[in-house]
Amino acid sequence: MDQSAVENATLFSSANQSQSAWSAHSVEYKAASVLLVLFVCGLGIIGNAMVILVVLTTKHMRTPTNCYLVSLAVADLMVLTAAGLPNITDSLFEQWVYGYAGCLSITYLQYVGINASSCSITAFTVERYIAICHPIRAQSLCTLSRAKKIIALVWTFTGLYCVMWFCLADLEQQTHGNTTVVICAYKVSRTQYLPIYFTDFALFYVLPLLLATVLYGLIARILILNPLPSDPKENSKAWRKSTNTSSSTQRAAKSSSYSTTATSRRQVTKMLAVVVILFALLWMPYRTLVVVNSFLEKPYLDTWFVLFCRICIYLNSAINPVIYNAMSQKFRAAFRKLCHCGPQHLEKPPAYSVALTYSVIKETSNGESPDHFTTEMEELPGASEEFLAGKKSLSFKESSLCKSMIANA
User: How does the record classify its membrane topology (predicted)?
Assistant: First the structure.
């Protein structure tokens, strides 16, 4: 097998197997590799499955942002199962045990998951930018149906793009003295593989990170200078209405809605920015290793460092549900409900408060779809209660006004 196949197949191929020498893994390496991969992949599989379940089974969790997070969770599950779990058998048996069909399908699924996760991150980054920096456009662009279409496009593109790996992957038998090992490697030579890898590197790592850096910079600028972009027409209507009614309760409710929406936007944006930063940091060791080895005559393939690179990749796919739980009250409550622990009052209030939420959207003119606004607003404790209290006091005044009119009549 060509040496470049070893250095570039480090996600599941054994790093200490080369054409010139072969040595068994040490007991320490086997134990560390199996335990670390089992722990990280097990945690990631459970966490990402919970993300998918809570969004699919809870109606008010089905929002544009959460759709992209479900797509990311599916991609991460694919990486953990197709790239992570084969490492366990590789460490134990020190050769490929899944046959020719397994080599082709696992290699394909591995790259589909990696590329789809990158595209999903790019998609929700653009969605955040539109929602915050262009709130008027967000009414028509940041919708649930459009998010589903974009996700379908992402998976179609990555699925078709990665078909080439069916032609590039193959089994390779190596004989070293009395030892014969079978590994899943690449057919092509080093000169043929490097253009493919650098295309992947540019499309699914460099460009998404550059785009995310620019867009999150613009988002931060908007949130710092103008926490709540709004529609001037709606603002003038709201001002005239508040002037005519002279209602202090209305003004208080509107002020509270402004503050709540601005704070919740920051929370959601911070959470998604952390996901992007971790994606950049945890993929960096492996990406750097392959780039550096591409220009070295003798590649650097230290067994423990390659294991470290693998664990970073699996950790990137496993850590996102932990971030959601730590930074999103809505996801935290949904996870607790799914596990049947903690308070069981996640479901939305009756239709009265749903209609109230829509009226608040129109009054605050945040320029987002009702689903999108709900996602952000419900990140904060007591947000719904504040609006509900404001609505109740308005209803009381309205009823008092009706009574006085009847009495005068």
Answer: Multi-pass membrane protein
Amino acid 2: pLDDT: 36
Contact at 8 Å (CB) between 75 and 120?
yes
Rounded to an integer, what distance in angstroms lies between the CA atom of residue 364 and that of residue 367? Answer: 8
Q: What backbone torsions phi and psi does residue 393 show, to the nearest 5 degrees?
A: -65, -35
- Interval 196-246: pLDDT, tens: 889 999 999 999 999 999 999 999 888 888 755 444 444 445 445 555 554
- Distance in angstroms (rounded) separating the CA atoms of residues 52 and 70: 5
Element housing 169 (H / E): strand 169-176
Cα–Cα nearest to 142, from 344, 332, 367, 390: 367
Q: Write down the H helix ranges in 80-143.
A: 85-93, 99-133, 135-141
With respect to residue 405, please indicate whether it lies within any of the assigned structural domains. Answer: no
Q: Would you state the structure tokens that stand for residue 340, as one six-digit string?
A: 């049947």
How would you label 341-369 residue by residue, b for 16+ Cβ within 10 Å and e otherwise? eeeeebeeeeeeeeebbeebbebbbbbbb
Please state the domain count of the chain.
1
* pLDDT tens per residue, range 276-295: 999 999 999 999 998 888 88
pLDDT digits (tens, 9 = 90+) for 131-147: 999 989 998 999 999 99
Location of structure tokens 């040595």: 23
CA distance 184 to 90: 10
Q: Rounded distance, CA 77 to CA 84, Å? A: 10
Give whole-number Cα distances, 327 to 181, 266, 380, in Å: 46, 11, 11
Number of H helices, E strands in the chain: 18, 2
Tell me the whole-structure pTM to 2 decimals. 0.76
Is 32 a domain residue?
A: yes
Please name the amino acid found at residue 202: A
- What would the two tokens of residue 47 be? 């966490």
- The identity of residue 22, as a single letter, is W
Q: What is the domain-level CATH number for residue 359?
A: 1.20.1070.10
Bridge partners for 182 per DSSP = 173
User: What value does the mean pLDDT of the chain take?
Assistant: 77
Domain that holds residue 28: 3-394
